[in-house]
Amino acid sequence: xxxxxxxxxxxxxxxxxxxxxxxxxxxxxxxxxxxxxxxxxxxxxxxxxxxxxxxxxxxxxxxxxxxxxxxxxxxxxxxxxxxxxxxxxxxxxxxxxxxxxxxxxxxxxxxxxxxxxxxxxxxxxxxxxxxxxxxxxxxxxxxxxxxxxxxxxxxxxxxxxxxxxxxxxxxxxxxxxxxxxxxxxxxxxxxxxxxxxxxxxxxxxxxxxxxxxxxxxxxxxxxxxxxxxxxxxxxxxxxxxxxxxx
Length: 246
Ligand SMILES: *Cc1c(COP(=O)(O)O)cnc(C)c1O
What we know:
Elements: H1 2-15, H2 20-37, E1 46-50, H3 56-64, E2 69-72, H4 75-84, E3 90-93, H5 102-105, E4 111-115, H6 118-131, E5 135-140, H7 157-164, E6 170-176, H8 189-204, E7 214-216, H9 223-228, E8 233-236, H10 238-241
Parallel strand pairs: 1-2, 1-8, 2-3, 3-4, 4-5, 5-6, 6-7
The site of pyridoxal-5'-phosphate has 13 residues, from strand 8 and helix 10.
């Protein structure tokens, strides 16, 4: 038993070696195959390089091998890297955002993935107005109802979206979810399918100012299933850079 566990661990590790070029190639190839299986176009899918804890040298490598959209889960780390990384890339905030940090992040990121309340959206709207910009956002949904995760419950999503749609300087582009950490990625298929269905259902209601086209779902160990279920943005860290050392 002990030995089998150890072997499995080694096998999963070796798949995510710290070879950024090879990892990106492998991920792109997986995505292409998943697109073929599910009759989707490869061009619909964007890989976000999740750079948390990773040094600028690794970020440079990812950039050199074709990735130009980076994501961080912490505001402080994002702002620090945003000023020190000189390449022409766009940033995404994928982690929880506190209202008191809204001011420093609005306008610095192309997309905020983690809006989970009207109150937060309103704070973003106020700041966007001051900066005279439109801020794109996603609504985070806790599809799996995990206590440890942020995000709206499924039955709150439509109501909150209707309220946020009235704000002038935020634009709802779609939905985001963080699926549970599971042994087998197939276990998350129903979660991804559900998020996709919510997006389709809400689009069909023709709410003013709401036309969603973005589904941010799928991470290192379940991005293939996510693509098959309609993801348009994959948030991949370990799969590109190797294991994180905190
Ligand atoms: C860290 C993180 C990811 C990437 O996780 P990996 O398993 O390393 O690919 C994706 N989304 C969010 C919100 C994260 O915080």
